[in-house]
Amino acid sequence: HHYKARPSSLNETSLAMLSMLIRRLIRLVDDHAKDGNPLVMVFDARHLATKSGQRVAILPTYKKGRPPMPEDLKQIVPQLKAASFALGANLLELGGFEADDVIGSLATQVRDRGEKMYIVSNDKDFQQLLEDDKIFLLKPVFNSKDKRWSTMTAEDFRESNHGLDPCKYPDIQALTGDAVDNVPGVKGIGQRIAPFLLSKSANKDLESLLADVDILDEKYKRELKPKAEILPQMRTVLTIRRDINLGMALWLALRYRRKINIKEVDRIFGRLGGDSSSVREQLSSIGFKEATYQKVKIKY
């Protein structure tokens, strides 16, 4: 399958944004994917859903009020997909599923195959997927000449959250709430207090904390008791799914890596009335040369 960007004209802001994202992708390939490891870009496809998802059924106000995707960014999505494919990435989107859930399921199934998975994102929600020596979070670093990426491990999470395992991140978020997704939390409990309270409970989880609520300070007990029934539901809303059966999509995402097709990148920028010279210069500076698509066998 070849992804094609529809010919269109983009404003200068959109063209600059597209160029920036492509250059960041090239850096990712250069720093972490030169050895032929599969590179997968996951896109959100909730718009293809035919019914409300599980989260909306639990919390009707889930993500309500979130501003729509900026028009400049929305315009470049088809071109970004095409350029990413030309730069060797496989694309993955499943109708009706949030990208986070697809990534969570992909990470789990890659782990089950005995391989390592690096999730490239600055989204803190992915911290719940971290696993020792298996799943890592690779965060882009901006405004630094010396450092392009920051790697977060499961142990890093424990060190900053009173020894809690990463899988307890949804328990933390249920207490603090998530303003971005419009998920309410508990008044007076923030990112510093939530992991501390959980760490002092018997099983270091929400159920244990609620069972021992009477021994807490009065200010926490007063706020927690009325929400004892809904907090586990909020945790469900904030938990990334790891059980989606990716089936053939998993094989398509991991089957091979292609070499960069710079001619296709040229065509994409040319159709948009843009200039790909800066991207070409970056590719040249890190040693990439023009190449046709080439299959690289990956164990499956």
Give the topology.
Blueprint: H1 12-32, E1 40-42, H2 54-58, H3 71-86, E2 90-92, H4 99-112, E3 117-120, E4 135-140, E5 149-152, H5 154-160, H6 169-176, H7 193-199, H8 206-211, H9 218-224, H10 231-238, H11 248-254, H12 262-271, H13 277-285
Number of helices: 13
Query: Please, what is the average pLDDT?
Result: 83
Cross-sheet strand order for the largest sheet:
3-4-5
Dominant shape? elongated
Rg, Cα atoms, Å: 22 Å
Assembly context of the chains: single chain
Strand-residue proportion = 5-15%
Q: Roughly how many Å apart are the termini?
A: 20 Å
Low-pLDDT residue intervals, each spanning 5 or more residues: 1-7, 289-300
Number of strands: 5
Helix content: 40-55%
Main pleated sheet:
3 strands, mixed
Structural class of the helices, strands and pairings? mainly alpha
Helix and strand element order? HEHHEHEEEHHHHHHHHH
